[in-house]
């Protein structure tokens, strides 16, 4: 205290005002509402550089999170689609059981896409008329993807292709009427419904963004009631060569009638 007093006197004699001397020697303090506690205050805002650093860090975190979110959404869509194909598989198994030895008869068809919708129509009672079962969440509705109307359900579409070998088309005298379920020797290999396989990875024109609803493969419903994910590497050929090793022909001898 004595040294402080001497410092004040010295600076006063040097021409300093008492107020200036006090500002140089006494710390700034805050008092709480009751005025009992004395606290040092030091208020300083962010500098521009610090603010820019924070913004840059946030941008980096967002950039890292977006791909992870996209992967999660893609996996969720693939899982929902697999659930759909499993329900379609079980519905088809029950439907074929009700038909006995016969195959579904769809009447004369002018193109393949229309019988996919009609085939789905046959299964509607077996899925409790649920439109969502035939809606693949990853299908954007582009022209390259299947999007065929279901006649009995206005506004409903199927995003899944139906194996044409398992549907009888043409008139009553058509040779395809001779198809019988006894020509199926392994129901677990017969692909009934699946994401539209526009082409295979072995094709020179293969484009994963155009030819797959899900990257890396397709979800497939089999006639024994199960569904599974089929990677592109295991997909093989679609039709050619025409034998039981190709995708559409596995598990049955119906292809021999073509």
Note the topology.
Blueprint: H1 2-13, H2 18-25, E1 29-31, E2 38-40, H3 48-99, E3 105-107, H4 112-123, E4 148-149, E5 157-158, E6 160-162, E7 168-169, E8 191-195, H5 208-211, E9 217-222, E10 227-231
Parallel strand pairs: 3-7
Antiparallel strand pairs: 1-2, 4-5, 6-8, 8-9, 9-10
Helix pairs in contact: 1-2
What would a concise description of this structure say?
This protein is of the alpha+beta class. The protein is built from five helices and ten strands.
3D architecture notes:
This protein has helices spanning 2-13, 18-25, 48-99, 112-123, 208-211; strands at residues 29-31, 38-40, 105-107, 148-149, 157-158, 160-162, 168-169, 191-195, 217-222, 227-231. The protein has a four-stranded antiparallel β-sheet with strand order 6-8-9-10. The termini are far apart. It is α+β, with helices and mostly antiparallel strands. Helix 1 packs across helix 2 (18-25). It has one domain. Mean pLDDT is 75; it is low at 31-35. It has five helices and ten strands, in the order H-H-E-E-H-E-H-E-E-E-E-E-H-E-E.
Could you name the key traits of this structure?
single chain, 258 residues, alpha+beta, four-stranded antiparallel beta sheet, two-stranded antiparallel ribbon, 10 strands, 34% helix
């Amino acid at each position: 205290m004595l040294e402080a007093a001497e410092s004040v006197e010295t600076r006063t004699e040097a021409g300093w005002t008492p107020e200036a001397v006090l500002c140089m020697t006494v710390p700034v303090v805050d008092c709480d509402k009751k005025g009992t506690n004395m606290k040092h205050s030091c208020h300083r805002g962010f500098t521009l550089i610090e603010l820019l650093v924070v913004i840059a860090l946030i941008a980096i975190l967002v950039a890292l999170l977006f791909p992870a979110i996209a992967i999660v959404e893609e996996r969720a869509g693939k899982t929902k689609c697999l659930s759909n194909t499993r329900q379609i598989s079980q519905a088809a198994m029950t439907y074929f059981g009700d038909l006995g030895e016969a195959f579904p008869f769809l009447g004369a068809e002018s193109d393949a896409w229309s019988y996919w919708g009609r085939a789905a129509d046959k299964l509607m009672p077996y899925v409790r008329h649920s439109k969502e079962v035939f809606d693949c969440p990853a299908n954007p509705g582009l022209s390259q993807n299947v999007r065929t109307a279901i006649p009995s359900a206005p506004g409903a579409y199927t995003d899944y292709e139906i194996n044409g070998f398992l549907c009888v088309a043409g008139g009553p005298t058509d040779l395809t009427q001779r198809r019988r379920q006894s020509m199926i020797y392994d129901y677990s290999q017969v692909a009934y419904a699946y994401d539209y396989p526009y082409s295979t990875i072995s094709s020179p024109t293969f484009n994963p963004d155009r030819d797959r609803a899900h990257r890396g493969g397709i979800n497939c419903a089999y006639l024994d009631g199960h569904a599974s994910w089929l990677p592109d590497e295991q997909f093989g050929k679609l039709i050619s060569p025409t034998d039981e090793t190709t995708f559409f022909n596995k598990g049955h001898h119906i292809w021999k009638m073509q």
